[in-house]
Specification:
This protein has 15 helices and 16 strands. The chain has helices at residues 9-16, 18-27, 70-73, 82-95, 105-117, 130-145, 193-197, 206-215, 237-249, 269-274, 300-303, 339-376, 403-407, 411-423, 442-460; strands at 49-53, 56-59, 64-67, 123-127, 149-153, 198-201, 220-225, 228-229, 233-234, 253-257, 280-283, 294-298, 381-384, 389-394, 426-427, 434-435. The relative contact order is 0.16. Keywords: Pyridoxal phosphate. Belongs to the class-III pyridoxal-phosphate-dependent aminotransferase family.
C-alpha cells in the first residue's frame, strides 16, 4: 500500500515541546547525553515530564498525555495511587523507620503472598531490581549445576550487564543463520569472552534450540527466557513445553525472566498461562508499584545455595569461618527487602487481587479498537500481546513469532504514528509497547481510539481509496 505522508510529525513534536528541548540542553551539562539511563532517550529529545496522576502525565510545556508507557510497565496501578501512598506512610509511622538493616515482618508477609500466586517459588530472595534478580538467578544456577556457560534467546533483554547484554537487538545482516544465531555484544566495553560464554538461541524454534543445547550440554548451566518476548511476542505452548523437557533432560536450570510479565499477564505470571514450572523465576518492575525491587524464587534445592547456613558470610573475617569462599554463594544488599518498598508491594497486590480482571478487559477493548481502526483504513497490522501489555506491529504478513519476524515489519511507519499520537496527547515512548493500568478509564480508551482514527487518516489518507 502506498502511503501518503502529510506534514512532518518530528517538526510538530519539537514545536510542541520546546521546554523539554531546553531542559535536555541543560541536562547535557550535568549528565552524558542528558540522561542517566539510555532507555529514557529518543530523538530529537525525550519528553520531560513534571507531573503524573492516575493515567495522565503532564510535561514541562503543560501538554497532558494519557500514559501508556507506565514507566515501562512498572505502574500497574497508575501514577500516585492513594492506597499505595497510604501504605508507605503507614509503614513509616508504624515502624518508626524506613530501613531496619535487619530481618523484618514484611519480608515474610510479602513473600507468602508471592508464593500464593507463584507456586514455583518454594523459597525466594529479594533484590533491588529485575536486573539484580536475573543476575542472582544465574549465580544460583551455576552453583547448582557447576556449569558456567549460559543460554539466552535472540531479541530477549534481561538487564544491562555483560553476561546478558548479548544479541538483544542485533543487525539481522550480522546475526548469522536464523537457526544458529551468533552471540553479538550490544555495548562497548564488554569483554570478548561473553560472546563465547553466552549462547544465543532462536525463539519459538524448538528443533534448532534442541540441537544447540545438545552441542553445549556439558557447558550450559542455565537457560533464561522471557516467556513473552519483549512483553508482547508470546512463546508457543509446544515450544515452551519442549524447552522445559530438554532442559530437564540435560540438567540445565530453566529461568523465567518475568520482570515484564509478572502481574501483567496475570497475578501468576506467564508460567501460570503456560502451565510450566520453571526452576527459577525473576520478578521486578510491577511488583513494587513503581519502586525499585526484584525477587528471585524457585526450587528449594537451588535457592538453598544462597542460605548463610550453607557457609560463612563473605564479610565475616573472624577465625571461626566454617568454610572457604568456594563453598559460599554470596548474595547481599543493604536495601534487599526494603520495608517501605514491600509495603508498597503489598498495597499493589491488594489492588490487583480485586481489579486485575478489569485491567485485562480494558486492554482487550483497546487492542480490539486499534485493530478495528487498522482495518478501517486498510492497514495490514495488529495489536499483539497477552495480558495488559501489547505492541502494534504493521505490515506483518505472517504471524510474529520472534525477533527477526519483527524486523520485517514497517517500523518506520510505526514510529511516525507514535510521534503523531504524542501530538494528540497519547504517550508511549516511540516504538515501545503499551501497558494498561487500573487507572485507565473508558474515557481514556475512547479518547485513545479517536486519536488513532485521526492519526491513521493522516498517515494513510487516500491510500485506501
Amino acid at each position: 500500500m502506498a502511503v501518503q505522508k502529510v506534514e512532518h510529525p518530528i517538526l510538530d513534536y519539537k514545536e510542541e515541546t520546546p521546554s523539554s528541548q531546553a531542559f535536555m540542553e541543560e541536562a547535557e551539562e550535568v549528565m552524558p547525553g542528558g540522561v542517566t539511563a539510555n532507555i529514557k532517550y529518543f530523538e530529537p529529545h525525550p519528553v520531560v515530564m513534571k507531573h503524573g496522576k492516575g493515567s495522565k502525565l503532564t510535561d514541562m510545556d503543560e501538554n497532558e498525555y494519557i500514559d501508556y508507557l507506565m514507566s515501562y510497565g512498572s505502574l500497574v496501578t497508575g501514577h500516585g495511587h492513594e492506597h499505595v501512598k497510604k501504605a508507605i506512610m503507614e509503614q513509616m509511622d508504624r515502624d518508626g523507620t524506613w530501613l531496619f538493616g535487619t530481618p523484618h515482618y514484611l519480608e515474610v508477609e510479602m513473600g507468602k503472598r508471592l508464593q500464593k500466586h507463584f507456586p514455583s517459588m518454594e523459597l525466594l530472595r529479594y533484590t533491588n531490581s529485575g536486573t539484580e534478580a536475573t543476575l542472582l538467578s544465574l549465580r544460583l544456577a551455576a552453583a547448582h549445576t557447576g556449569k558456567h556457560k549460559i543460554a539466552k534467546f535472540e531479541g530477549h533483554y534481561h538487564g544491562g550487564y555483560d553476561q546478558m547484554l548479548v544479541s538483544v537487538s542485533p543487525s539481522v545482516r550480522e546475526a548469522g543463520n536464523a537457526d544458529a544465531p551468533y552471540s553479538l555484544p550490544e555495548s562497548k566495553g564488554m569483554h570478548p569472552s561473553h560472546a563465547r560464554n553466552t549462547i544465543t538461541l532462536p525463539f519459538n524454534n524448538l528443533k534448532a534450540c534442541k540441537k544447540i543445547l545438545l552441542q553445549h550440554k556439558d557447558e550450559i548451566g542455565a537457560v533464561m527466557i522471557e516467556p513473552v518476548q519483549a512483553g508482547f511476542i508470546p512463546a508457543e505452548k509446544s515450544f515452551m513445553k519442549g524447552l522445559r523437557q530438554i532442559t530437564e533432560e540435560l540438567g540445565m536450570v530453566l529461568i523465567f525472566d518475568e520482570v515484564k510479565t509478572g502481574y501483567r499477564t496475570g497475578l501468576g505470571g506467564a508460567q501460570n498461562i503456560y502451565g510450566i514450572k520453571p526452576d527459577l523465576t525473576a520478578l521486578g518492575k510491577a511488583i513494587g508499584g513503581g519502586y525499585p525491587v526484584g525477587v528471585v524464587g524457585g526450587k528449594k534445592e537451588i535457592m538453598m545455595h544462597s542460605a548463610p547456613s550453607q557457609g560463612s558470610d563473605v564479610f565475616d573475617s573472624s577465625q571461626s569461618k566454617r568454610s572457604s569462599s568456594k563453598d559460599v554463594l554470596f548474595h547481599s544488599g543493604t536495601y534487599n527487602g526494603h520495608p517501605m518498598i514491600l509495603a508498597a508491594g503489598m498495597a499493589v497486590l491488594d489492588i490487583l487481587e480485586k481489579e486485575l480482571d478489569d485491567v485485562l478487559k480494558q486492554t482487550e477493548k483497546l487492542k480490539n479498537g486499534i485493530n478495528e481502526k487498522l482495518r478501517k483504513y486498510g492497514v495490514q497490522g495488529e495489536a499483539v500481546g497477552i495480558g495488559s501489555i501489547f505492541s502494534v506491529v504493521l505490515n506483518n504478513k505472517e504471524k510474529i513469532r520472534n525477533y527477526r519476524d519483527l524486523q520485517k515489519t514497517d517500523l518506520a511507519t510505526r514510529k511516525e504514528i507514535d510521534f503523531r499520537l504524542l501530538g494528540k496527547g497519547i504517550y508511549v515512548k516511540p516504538m515501545n509497547r503499551y501497558s494498561v493500568s487500573t487507572a485507565h478509564s473508558d474515557e481514556d480508551i475512547n479518547q485513545t481510539l479517536d486519536a488513532y482514527d485521526e492519526v491513521l487518516r493522516e498517515v494513510y489518507e487516500g491510500a485506501r481509496f
